[in-house]
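Re: folding output
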Amino acid sequence: MSEKEPLMDIRWIMSVMPHRYPLLLVDRVLEIEPKKRIVAIKNVTVNEEFFAGHFPDHPVMPGVLVIEAMAQAGGLLLMHDVPDRENKLIFFTTINKAKFRRPVVPGDQLRIEIDILRLREVFCKQSARALVDGQLVAEAVLSSAMMDR
């Protein structure tokens, strides 16, 4: 069963995460089960700054930014219930088993699915997947730590 919140759009995301353009890579949260799972989307447009150099004649979203989008969705899940989240930051500790299945290009909509594998007070391990049109484009196991700002 998913929790539906009225403001899980970009305004809600910006109230939870410190990221801003051009590095805010989640546009909307579709589903959230606190401390368990989140589904979010990133609309990939040709206007993204990174497409100017990656690659001008054949635009491809850098894989590291696909990973970052997955990490940000995971961060939203982790920060969802934190009462003093404005005083916290989440940092990567490891990225394991990262695999890229196909390029992400302008016009794609990334569907990001995160499941918590292990959750401790400040450490978390998550299974992350990114899909476009139901096809897996990237996956990884992400670990992170929450720290005071």
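--- second protein (sequence, then structure) ---
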Amino acid sequence: MPGPTLLCAPVPSESHEERKRRALRIVRRLARAYPDAACALHYETPFQLLAATILSAQCTDAMVNRVTPELFRRWGTPEKLAAAEPSELEAVVRPTGFYRQKAKSLRSASHDIVTRFGGEVPRTLDELVTLRGVARKTANVVLGNCFDVPGLTVDTHMTRVNQRLRLTRETAPVRIERDLMELVPRREWTLFSHRVIAHGRELCDARRPQCDACALRDECPFPGSPAARARRPRRA
């Protein structure tokens, strides 16, 4: 299991406007550090990304990418997946965990896409979250990567990194999303999510963050960062 997320003290005397300016600097640095960051899930259509994201709950993207080629080969459209034999579908998605519930969500969401949306993945958050297995995170992944609708994807990496950066003190994804919406320009939301997730995987590890190698090290108040160490009072 990942280690506990440490909520560090806020940057001393930082106003909301100062935090917003710091957030903009973080956005720019992440863009330089991760210029090619993109969705880690493999897909060719909006429906495939929706299905892959449903499977990604409590599962690594790498495992999902091992499972989806067979899933899409057999049931690559909403019509086919809605009609899939439950036991056969469960067998294919089993490696992703919680496979019975995920199979039910895939079949139910596919059925609704066919019957309620004419076989097309809906293009609004309000419509997407009516599908079984689809919450704001999944909806924002699909909207941002398939329909160019900016969205913040709050997963464990987004939670940990933004808490350490002190861009949020919240723990609930919807509240973290709300905080970041006030700090990060809307046009940057999708790529910001990809870059923060990449940063969380590569450097800002839950247990052993590599603070000295971090491009954000002088903007970060996390206790292990150089910026935080510089603010500590020296012993007499």
